[in-house]
Amino acid sequence: MGDVGEILMSVLSTIRVPKPGDRVHKDECALSFASPESEGGLYVCMNSFLGFGSQYVERHHARTGQRAYLHITRTRKAKKEDDNNSGSGHPPKKKPTRLAIGIEGGFDVELDQYEEDVKVVLLPERQEVTSEDLATMPDVVRERVSLSMAGIMAADSVSHALQVQQWDGEVRQESKHAADLKQLDNGLKIPPTGWRCEVCDLQENLWMNLTDGKVLCGRRYFDGSGGNNHALLHFQETGYPLAVKLGTITPDGADVYSYDEDDMVLDSKLAEHLAHFGIDMMTMEKTERTMTELEIAVNQRVGEWEVIQESGTTLRPLFGPGLTGMKNLGNSCYLNSVMQVLFTIPDFQNKYVANIDKIIDEAPSDPTQDFKTQVAKLGYGLLSGDYSKPAPDPGDENGASEPRGDQIGIAPRMFKALVGRGHPEFSTNRQQDAQEFLLHFINMVERNCRSGSNPSEAFRFLVEDRIVCQQSQKAKYTQRVEYIVQLPVPMDQATNTEELQEAERRREEGDSSAPTVRAQIPFTACMAALSEPEILTDFWSSAVQAKTAATKMTRFASFPDHLVIQIKKFTFGLDWVPKKLDVSIDVPDTLDLSALRATGQQPGEELLPEVAPPPLMTPDVEVKAPVLDDSTVSQLCEMGFPLEACRKAVYYTGNTGIDSAMNWIMGHMDDPDFSAPLVLPGGSSGPGTTPTESLSEEHLATIVSMGFSRDQATKALRATSNVLDRAVDWIFSHLDDLESMDVSEGGRSAAESEGGRDPPPGPRVRDGPGKYELFAFISHMGTSTMCGHYVCHIKKDQQWVIFNDQKVCASEKPPKDLGYLYFYRRVTE
């Protein structure tokens, strides 16, 4: 080992011991989805602690000169039954206390057992050094290399550290009221069974207040079930903060809610607090579902889950290129579904997968933090077929597990961490809205493709709004960029109204056998609702210099190569509680939108003059921060709306109360500046006052990349207080003003126009016939976008394929009527 010892001595300065804060990538290759379990194992650079599969470690060595790598390989052991699992399909003995998987207090998962082999490998000769070999080497070599090996193996991998952070919010905290809770000596003793709400006699979802022993019903759920809010009303009247859910009390604990802290909490003195009212916690048995179990149950709407996942039939597993499953990292099915669809689109394949060698060659020193590299890695992993192989046999000798197409698949940990970094929602392990993630990812692509091809152009299109003043009959035309068509669901157009009413009547009468009837909505009715004129009752007309009525018509100014349609299933009830519409829509396989193409200004039509409306305040009044009703703002925020949107709603409705503010919010939710900061007309931060030096270079570059000049981008950002979305909209509503300004390379120029007429400047949008065919759809199961499960169906070689995380199977009955996002591609004639 003399030669090896000399080599180690010569490279000792490149061998580091991980320090706190170092990112150790020992679970996944930075450039592929190779892991220690993969063939060839994983090589961890002993200097940067980046991991590389056998395919890429030579490339890293050649590029950096690094020679010492820690080679980690894991080989699966045969499984053994343990105390936590009977092996006969019974649930684990340990009761879950958190809505989480595979972590302390959550649902247990069977961890595969591995034989692990660790040694140092020296490139390029691939000489191997084991721990035993180090014993014969000089002290300085043995000590440094041993400490580095031990440090790498002991360090938390980046993926594990992220997982712990993301699940941190699921842990219940000790209530601040528990230690010194005041309990009234009113002599009240609560029996162990037979409880009823003291106000309405309800016998389920009952909560006992731990201060005075009052037994009252819980909150009403958004689907109409639950209680009548009497326990909450009692807190509002008395201020008594803690309540325990009767029926969940066991020797292990119970569900305790703090109304003051507005969360489920722990009560370390629960046994003492229950004993005060004669309840012996050690003898109580569970008779009601815990809140964790209720949350899981409410996510699994019976019928919808089975139909969308096609769980009623045995599906044929598929393997091969373009048929790769993705592991669920904990509520990451929204990401899995969106990325599966995107990488069936040629623009994304050509940008990232076709150029993967060039992308990897040009990757920065830490490719785990490079957007282009990680997107290319994900795309290649999905399309190559390298990971589309059956999952290893779990060793189930009884054959209890069903072969349902589970694959080795890929786990997009680095990708998810990168695209979610800094985002308040996508950085967590909570369920998210697939449509919001799609737009978030498109936005990242836009920012990272300022030079070269931009695959998000496949979705980009222009919308034309035509507003006609009813008093003067003069018109105003504006254009804006969109990526998704949001299709309304007119529930009053259901074709099975009688069935729906009968089912509702039976439910109200308490008939538990009443069938679940889904509203049947014609797709043509949804399209009609999208295209019908909208009446504007409060439109300021520059022609009559006053507010008047107007009609607004929306049409396509261009048709994209790929059209995304979102069914607006998520709405608000009369009580402003969010809910999901349970509807079936006969979405067609082919679509012709030619009749919805915008026509522009009509012959003989007069345009509204470009005159700004009068300011809201007189010029001699100093503009001060608005006085807003804090209680209304707080109520709106509690409903989940962004703070700035709530402030604007209260401001623009003149502090007239929650109802008018909520109406304003519902009418402006689709505004691009919905959650942008409130800007007062004439204020120092008002439009047109942003100095050039304070404009965001990132925003400027994004607008320039869309085909506008820097001067145009600067003017737009100045006019909209440096808010990107508002600036883009401003450009399209001021195209006439910009005609005299130069268009940057990539925009349309006079040389390209016919007849010598200069077309207005605009973004790079593709246009063509408005005829489309359906090639994919994403479906959602559950009661809201914040819970439930997503799967996608994609048409490949005339065969529908279902992608359900790691399961990839031939689809027998694609539920096209239950989709949430539909993806169409242009039909080329």
Automatic annotation (TrEMBL):
Residues reported in the UniProt entry to bind substrate: W207, R219, R220, Y221, F222, Y257, Y259, D262
Binding site for Zn(2+): C197, C200, C217, H230
Catalytic activity: Thiol-dependent hydrolysis of ester, thioester, amide, peptide and isopeptide bonds formed by the C-terminal Gly of ubiquitin (a 76-residue protein attached to proteins as an intracellular targeting signal)
Enzyme Commission number(s): 3.4.19.12
A GO biological process held by the record: proteolysis
Residues the record marks as active site: C333 (nucleophile), H789 (proton acceptor)
Keyword ATP-binding: no
Compositional bias of kind Low complexity: 744-753
MF (Gene Ontology): cysteine-type deubiquitinase activity; zinc ion binding
Gene3D superfamilies: Cysteine proteinases, DNA helicase RuvA subunit, C-terminal domain, Zinc/RING finger domain, C3HC4 (zinc finger)
Keywords: Hydrolase, Metal-binding, Protease, Repeat, Thiol protease, Ubl conjugation pathway, Zinc, Zinc-finger
Alphabetical list of SMART domains matching this protein: UBA, ZnF_UBP
Region ranges (Disordered): 75-98, 386-407, 494-516, 743-766
Domain UBP-type: 173-281
InterPro entries given in the database record: Papain-like_cys_pep_sf, Peptidase_C19_UCH, Ub_carboxyl-term_hydrolase, UBA, UBA-like_sf, Ubiquitinyl_hydrolase, UBP13_Znf-UBP_var, USP
Name of the protein described by the UniProt record: Ubiquitin carboxyl-terminal hydrolase
Organism of this sequence: Oryzias javanicus (Javanese ricefish)
